[in-house]
Amino acid sequence: MNLSEINNILEGLGISKENPGSSTGKEFFGAGPKIVSHTPINGQELASVTQTTREEYEAIMAKSDEAFKVWRTMPAPKRGEIVRQYGNKLRENKDLLGRLVSLEMGKSLQEGWGEVQEMIDICDFAVGLSRQLYGLTMHSERPSHRMYEQWHPMGTVGIISAFNFPVAVWCWNAAIAWVCGDVCVWKPSEKVPLCGIACQNIFNEVLEENNLPEGISCLVNGGVEVGEWMTQDKRMPLISATGSIRMGKIVGQAVAARLGKTILELGGNNAIIISEKADIESTLVGAVFGAVGTAGQRCTSTRRLIIHESQYDNVIAALKKAYGQLRIGNPLDMNNHVGPLIDTLAVEQYEKALAAIKEQGGTMIVEGEVLQGDEYSSGCYVKPCIAEVENHYAIVQHETFAPILYVMKYKDLDEAIALQNGVPQGLSSAIMTTDMRESELFLSAAGSDCGIANVNIGTSGAEIGGAFGGEKETGGGRESGSDAWKAYMRRQTNTINYSKEVPLAQGIKFDL
């Protein structure tokens, strides 16, 4: 990866060496300190953005408020047309934007392209949704009355996204919010600010071509302080936040204190139950990708394998062989399976987890280590590892954002489900089985307690058509497909009296 390749990616997406970190253009450029973006591939500096100042934030909120007055009155299908155009722009920029995702975040190029495809897919979904924001009609108990409900835009939606999906999760929220008539203010992770700049640049083209106000989609950049401005801002009726459980608890409390609404997508501790009746070959693909894809930095990454005792030795042997074939290196090289962790802090957490596994009684089946050498000069590359553990270990109950896979045995399915559910998080889960009774039990009310439960596929790789989110300490939020759009709108119940009388409900008499 040479300098000209990097420059081609950045310049192709309108990114300069130094960039305004907010959507107000150059009015405040340089007022705040810089956030410098480095690639975890080799530690090279890519470019910088300026942090959003309080004055700049207030200017953005004013623009957002003015834009909402225009945007909310546009018919929903017309808003959908704007999102359709954005989806087409993403198609044109898929290669470059996917490369930027891989360059700045470190995930494989296939996954970088896949993330942009998720953006395209949610735009397509949102376009169709713009003609399907349905309410209900109810029968009134009063004669000559009609009752119905309708949905209205909420206002400015604040979006706080994490580094591991630097573009897709924002678009899950923004595309749906836009067709619902909301405007958006987005704070990307300070670890991947250039991805936010690129997405904003592309959407700005659509706004300019349609003579629409820039406040429909606003960008802010910065750390905890900027996030606090958003969560405490009464002008944002909804905050959608993706990140750690610790962060989610802070956001949830701050927004609840002002009676605002939240969509929280927090940590996962996802398990695959491998039945004695599992197809081991297909099981292996789902388990290995789930564990090592994105270097274990997905909220849906497979953290635990709960394996039937009769299959345990076979599965472990197959896993050891598969892990021995993993290629770790530059994620832009499509021969490699695993790229780097996001930064050296993540590497430190990985090392602490390895030490905790051994201290708490775990046994390493495939040893982990921090990789050394010229190819790994950023210090962010680690070896995916496998550890035999007990589910109750403190380290197992905790989510470590790294490619660490825990394995354990079970005797019967009730025990396996109890182990699967026996963690604080409740995002994604799966069972590998060819037995219909096992799969149906797993999906029943007595089965998985997660927001996502799969059969014969892994925990990772959700499609945009279904609502995405989890239970317990995962936060309870839902984004993307199904009827998740309702979280971005306010419900209104209407009653129309077309008679000459004014009868009261419940038969109450009130005569003057």
UniProtKB/TrEMBL annotation:
GO terms for molecular function: aldehyde dehydrogenase (NAD+) activity. PANTHER family: ALPHA-AMINOADIPIC SEMIALDEHYDE DEHYDROGENASE. Its EC number is 1.2.1.3. Residues 34-493 form the Aldehyde dehydrogenase domain. SUPFAM superfamilies: ALDH-like (SSF53720). Belongs to the aldehyde dehydrogenase family. It comes from Croceimicrobium hydrocarbonivorans. The lineage of its organism: Bacteria, Pseudomonadati, Bacteroidota, Flavobacteriia, Flavobacteriales. It is an enzyme of class 1 (oxidoreductase). The active site is at residue 265. Keywords: NAD, Oxidoreductase. Homotetramer. This is aldehyde dehydrogenase (NAD(+)).
